[in-house]
Each structure stands twice: as structure tokens, then as C-alpha cells.
Amino acid sequence: MSRFVDRRLNGKNKSAVNRQRFIRRFRTQLKTAVENAINKRNITDIEQSESIKIPAKDVKEYQFHYGLGGRVKTVLTGNKEYVAGDKIPKQNQDGNDSGNQASNTGEGIDDFIFELSSEEFLDIFFDELELPDLIKKQLASIQTFKQVRAGFSTTGIPTNINVIRSLRRATARRIALSSPYQTEIEELQNSLEKEEKGSMNYQLLAEQIDKLKNKIAAIPFIDTFDLRYNSRIKQAVPTTQAVMFCIMDVSGSMDKTKKDIAKRFFILLYLFLKRNYAKVNIIFIRHHTTAKEVDEKEFFYSRETGGTVVSSALNLMSTIIEEKYDPAAWNIYAAQASDGDNWNADSPFCSQIIESKLISFIQYFAYVEIMPRLHQSLWEVYTEIKNHHKNFAMETISDFKDIYPVFRELFKRQKS
Amino acid sequence: MNNKNKLISDGAEWNFELLEKYDAVIGSIAKEYGLDTYPNQIEIITSEQMIDYYSAVGMPLGYFHWSFGKQFLEVEQRYRYGYMGLAYELVINSNPCISYLMEENTSTMQAIVIAHACYGHNSFFKNNYLFKSWTNPNSIIDYLLFSKNYIAKCEEKYGLDAVESILDACHALMNYGVDRYHHPTKLSLHEEQIRQKKREEYLQTQVNELWQTIPKRKNQKDDDKIIQLPEEPQENILYFIEKNAPNLEPWQREVVRIVRKISQYFYPQKQTKIMNEGWACFWHYILINELYNRGYVNDKFMLEFLQNHTNVIKQLNFNEPNYSGINPYTLGFHMFMEIKRICENPTTEDKEWFPELVGKDWLESVKFAMENFKDESFISQYLSPKLIRDLKLFFLLDDAEKSDMEIIAIHNEHGYQKIRETLSAQYNLSLIEPNIQVVNVDHRGNRSLTLRYIPNNRRPLAADTSEVLKYLRLLWGFNVKLEEEQTDGSAKMIFEC
């Protein structure tokens, strides 16, 4: 008799582990491929999956086999005109040879191509990067708790009574307390049977048995020390939300290319944060002489002219943090992109705001200066801040190609 | 009429009730023909799951390794882009016999697949002599589970990289992990676990004894005796490594053994591709036709069946663009059909070639052939002149030393025997895989291991042979040499590492 089994619901990812093993083994090759891919990508599709090529010779599994040459005998199908003794010139001999030559260098055989999922892609993309100060913040910001089970306790509130455990203990107690009486009853019962019904001794024994039975009945069904409670304790959960401030200068000097570079940088940061935190909020602040909180579209595409007062943006950021993002509950990151132009008299203000209002509340402040003609006063005051604070970083981007290396530089795993 | 009532289904949709009906009818007809099978366990799976099974070489469970991941990615990719279709079914040589059916199949396809796999392949697994003597279907699933757990434990204990490098090396030598002549011991999970522990200790003492470097005391007699290792050339390289490699840890020996055992398990399948597929096609053809004769299926069903059947046994000609050699389904199917035809309607030619078949019961004759042959001997015994003519087989010799290729034989009186012999040799595993054996260990000297390649038809080994030797060296722990036997019997060193 045959048995039918429906396996369709069993899940399809039996090979998931093998797939991971494959990716693990070819990590180096994949990394190169991913980095090449990222340079070719648009911002909007940075998070997509990717076809990855691995050189054929790397994935080849070697086994003993014959090479070319010797006497090769083959039986083929579909003979049309040949008769025994016919000679067929080896026209392809040279072509074959060179084909094989090429494949030895890894180009003749098809390279191994496969699709990396977006998850795997980003995983490799952000390999070895780390959020600065992440651990410290986690420890410092234990503010949220969740209730977890922690066995049973002898005290608690009525709603937490564990019925099974409590009754189990009650039963055990009742058995323990009543067993001496039970044995006595049994003995008396035995002697009772020997006595004549109605005799004096019989009466006496019956009375004793009744007494003992009453004693047993008097044992409480449940007692307070039988009670067991489900115990729950509070466990600290690290904060898993982050807010990211994108600050960008939109004054006349920031042209489209510069904004584009800034945008890519911000997107990298966003993707990176998203991998580390359950929830990431983004606040866009753009500024020229005054700062304004805007949505993404306005942030990247509207253009205004005017002077540049960076401190306005920093002030706004500080206000927003005060209003909405309690540093105890949020991991705060800031990324500022600018071409370095700032009203000279404003730079000391910036330094002051960062020092007094921002730097001690935030995880990391990254400043990128995009294609500056010359480093100006802002760079100078920021350099000063950088020297004093580990969670402040700055770099210069002078080309599209720099974005990724600079990003890596800013977030690379710090050796402890 | 009566036939109308017997009709099982008229649509493409299937459900479990319908499959059970088909299975019951097909099963009872198979029984009438005396097909002896293991109980069937028929599992319905999705195409994604099918890809999973593909990449685990068709085993329902196995240890983890990147090469299976590679296989998976390859199949998935090619399937997704439509370069390849998936098999309708996959059968495991186990008891009960597990068959995987794809949910995408139409009801007709499911019926064909049940006939093909659950009765065709199944009876082949149970009755062919190679499978009977080399595999133990009762315990294979248990053994795979054991090996999976064992390797997972090793990974935990010794790290992924350490286990992976051993597995890589074993996989490279997997084809040389089979006993071609001795019967292996049967596998069972429980015994395996107990024995594995003992084996670990025992093996280690054995090896250490052999590689004893401390000078022996005077009263030990065998000082002068030169131990020849191996005593005879050893074709099972992995076995030799497992028993004799000086530096392997006990767990590494066990991993070598696992790969070797699994390779051994697949060895009969490699040798009976044509017969196994031919037998299954032969029986689905007979069973389905019988279903039709008895009115269980209608013309619509038969049209779909015939179209599929024809596709499966389609043989391209050598000069057609997608030609990839002889289709095992075609050759096997026609060979069994030929046996049936010769038994029933022999020609004068058949009487000359197959006197033992003429006038015999066809059912007994095909069963005898299925039970007692492998591809190589099956072809040399049963390939009929008529089939050679039908397929227009011809024999081409490509000698590297000559400027022309030569047609040696075609489908005519003079050619039949030569074509038979050559085609038979084409399925002889010991000719397909280069003949390489362990011949010597310099165990008093530098401990190097010597292999010998005995050439066949002057064919050289491929240039990347040295890559395989690197793996062997890793397992052996000392130098490895590969020599080639010359025509005069002397040996010439061809690779060393």
C-alpha cells in the first residue's frame, strides 16, 4: 500500500545553509564584485539584489579525469552517409586547442554567475563596518525593559498563581501528612475485622478509625505554602531605535553634482543604520542663512540661493532633539554635508553649539566636505572638535568614487 | 458503457484522492505483472523544494557543504531563466521507497510518474543485483542522518574551515572511494554510532603502530621484515587513506569514511543509468497502456501521455545542435522493448543473435535482464542489430596521433558486434574514470605515497590532475607521487606534490 505525504508546507529553504556556506567560501571574490557593482549603481537601486560573477577556476571542483589525446572511441547516433573506413579530417583541432588554452586561464569556461539577495548584498557591502560607540550606548541607555519568565516563586500576586504547580504541592503535602494516619487506619481495620460486630472492642476500634478519618479530613486541601507563582522579572533591553539627522547646505555654491554626492552619502548611512536598529527616523535639515526641517524631496531637489550660516542648522537640530528625541531613548546620528562655505564669523558659533549642546548627546557626528576649493574656517574649527571628541569624524570627498571609501573610513571597525 | 464508469479523471487538476485512485489501479496492474516493489511513500513537493533536493544529489538529507550550495545556485538560476526544466519526479533508493512528485504536474503527469517511479524504479532498486548487494535501503536514511549529525558536531568542535577542507579533499577523491569488487558491510544507524566510537580508538592504535618511530627493543623479532604497504595495489584511495594516513585525527578519518560510504551507496546508480531509466520507461509505457485498455483513462489522457513519453525518449542525431550523446531513456527503453519483441515476434536475424530469447516468456526475460545485469553487460548482451539500425549507430575513432578521425563501424552486418562492444565499454565505469591505484608507501623513508595510473587507449590524464593530488597530499600529510605505467610495464613519474 502506498502512503501519500504532502510536503509542500515543509518549507523550501533546505539549501539555505549550503547557500550560506557557498557565500562564506567565496567572500573575498564576492566583496570585489560587490564593490564594483556599487560604483555602477544609482542611489535608488542601491538596495537591490545583484548578479555576481565568480571566476570559473575558483569554483571548480577537481577530480581525476582524462585530458585530450589518446584513442577516443565513441558510438554516435543518426548516421546518414558514413560507411566503415571513412576518414573525417579533424577540422576543429586547432580551434579546440586554443579554446582549451583559454579556459585554463579562466576565460574560456563560463564564469559562475548567481544572484545575491539584497540582504546578502548589503551584508557583504557593510562587512567590517561598525557603528561607532554602539556598545557603550547600549549599556548606557538601558531604559526600556521587557518582562521575561524566570521560573517560579513562593510569593506573588493571585493572578500569577501557577495552578498546576500549586496543586501538585498540595497533593504532595496531603499525602505526606495523611500517610501516618492511613497506616494506623489500616492496622485498626485489620484488627477490626477479627473482632465480633457489636462487641466492645469493635466499637472502640470503630471510634478510633472515625477519629483518624476526621483527622485526615481536617488536613487542608490547599495551604498558603503550597502556592507557587509564575515569576516574571524585568530584563533590560538595549534601545533599538535611532534617529539620523541629515544636514545639508543648499546655498548657491552647492550645485547638482555636490548634492548628488551628499545624497549618496546619506543613503549609505541610512542603509547602514537600518541594519543596526529596528527603527530609524530621518530628519532632513537644509540650510542657507536659515535652517528648515524639510521632507526628502525638498531636501534634495529644491534650490535656493543665499549665504551660508551653518550654526542655524545646528541650532535647529539641537531644538529638535530637545523636543522629540530624548538622548536616553534614542541613538542619535548626524551627518553633515557641505562644500565648506560658511560665513566666517559663524564658524566659532558652530563649534560652540556642537561642544555645548550636541556632542555629548549624540552617538556620532560625521562631517563630509564635498569638493571644496579650499578648506575654510569651518574645517578649521571642526578639526579642533575632532581632536577632542572621538565621536566626531570628518573627511573630504572630491569625487563620486570617494563616497564609498570615505564612508568606510568613517565607520570602519575600530580596533579596541 | 462500462468503460465510462471506470474513468478516473478527465481534467488536468489533481487531488490526493485522485492520486490514491491512480496509485491503487496502477499498483494492482503492476502486481498482475509480478513487479516486486518496496512499499511506496509518495511525497508531493513544490518546485522550490525540488531544487533543494537536486542540489543535495537527490538525498532527502545530507551534511552541509558549499558545493551543494553551488549546485543549488546553479540549478535555481538555470530554472529561473528557463534554461532547464526540472524532473517531474525524483526517487530515493530506500525502504519504503520515497518518490517526490512535483505539485505542478498535471493529473496525467502524476499518473505517469507514479507508474514510472513508484513501480518502475522501485522494482529496479529492489531486484537488480548491484543494488541488492551494495546498498541497504533499510538504513540509508538513518546513515545519512548519522553522517549529517556527525559532521555538524565536528564543525562545532573543530571549526567550519577544518571540516570544510577535509570534505573538499574527500569530494575530489569521491569516485575513488568505492570498492569495485568487495561487498561493503551494511549500514545501520545504531550500530554505526556504537561502532564509530570503537572504530575511532581502534583505528588510531592501528595507524600509530604502523608509524612507530621509537626503535624496537631487541627481543622484538620482526625488525628486518619489510612491510609492503599496501600489500596489493589499492583502488579505493579513500579507504586506504582512512586506514593508513599517518596524521589524520580520528574525527577526520570518520569524515573520510562518511564520504566513502555515501559514494559507495551511489555506485550502483552510476552503473545502471540506462537500465534503470529504461526499465522505468518500459513499465510506465506498459502500465499506462494497460490503464487505457481497461478504460481507466481516455484518449485525452493518452495524447498527453504519448506526447510526454515521446519527449522523454527523444534521441537527437549527432549532427543536431543540442546533441549531448546517447539519451539513456531512449536506449534503455528500446532495449527492453526489443527483448519483449524478440520473445514474441522474432525474425530470422533475432533467432541467430538471441536464441535464448526466442519463444520465451517476455515478462520473465525482461525481469531476468533487469535483475542480473548492469549497463555495460546489459548492452553487450542485449543490444540488438535492429536497434542499432533504428538508431543508426556508428563507431568513430579519434586517435590523437592521426590527422583524421575514422569511422570504424556502422549499422551493418560487419559493424554490429564492434558497435556493441564499443558502446558497452562506453558504460564501463572503470574505463570512464581513469584507473588510478595506490601502489606504494615509502614508510621507512620520507613517507611519500605513490599512485599509479594505468592508461587506457593511451589517454593522458588532464592537466589539472595536480590539483587533485594537492587534496590527496592534504589527507596523506606527506608527499604524493603519481606515476604512469608504460607499455613495457615500467613506471614514469608524471605528477608530484
Helix-strand category of chain B: alpha/beta
Counting DSSP E segments of at least 2 residues, the number of strands of chain A comes to 13
> Residue-averaged pLDDT of chain A, rounded?
80
Sheet with most strands of chain B: 4 strands, mixed
Strand content of chain B: 5-15%
Largest sheet of chain A, described in full? 6 strands, mixed
Count of alpha and pi helical runs of chain B = 21
Which strand order spans the largest sheet of chain A, edge to edge or round the barrel? Answer: 10-9-8-11-12-13
Average pLDDT taken over every residue of chain B: 88
Radius of gyration of chain A: 39 Å
What's the SSE pattern of chain A?
Answer: EHHEHEEHEHHEHHEEHEEHHEHEHEH
Query: Which overall shape of chain A is indicated by the principal axes computed on the Cα atoms?
Result: flat
Structure description:
The complex is a heterodimer of chains A (416) and B (497). Chain A has helices spanning 16-25, 27-40, 56-59, 93-104, 118-125, 134-140, 163-194, 200-218, 256-276, 296-301, 310-324, 347-358, 377-388, 403-411; strands at residues 3-6, 50-54, 71-76, 87-89, 112-116, 144-153, 229-237, 241-249, 279-287, 291-294, 331-338, 364-370, 392-397. In chain A, α7 (163-194) packs antiparallel against α8 (200-218), α11 packs parallel to α12 and α12 packs parallel to α13. Chain A is built from 14 helices and 13 strands. Chain A is flat and about 120 Å long. In chain A, the strands form three sheets. In chain A, strands 10-9-8-11-12-13 form a six-stranded mixed β-sheet, with helices on both faces. A two-stranded antiparallel ribbon of chain A has the order 2-5. Residues 93-108 and 135-142 of chain A have low confidence and may be disordered. Chain A has 416 residues and is an alpha/beta fold. Helices cover 54% and strands 11% of the residues of chain B. With 497 residues, chain B is of the alpha/beta class. Chain B has helices spanning 2-6, 16-32, 47-55, 66-80, 107-127, 129-134, 140-158, 160-172, 189-210, 237-244, 250-271, 273-293, 299-312, 328-344, 348-353, 362-372, 375-382, 385-391, 416-426, 429-432, 465-476, and strands at 40-45, 89-92, 97-102, 394-399, 404-409, 435-441, 449-454, 480-485, 491-496. Chain B is built from 21 helices and nine strands. In chain B, strands 6-7-8-9 form a four-stranded mixed β-sheet, covered by helices on one side. The interface between A and B is large, with 59 and 96 residues. β4 of chain A pairs antiparallel with β5 of chain B, so a sheet runs across the interface.
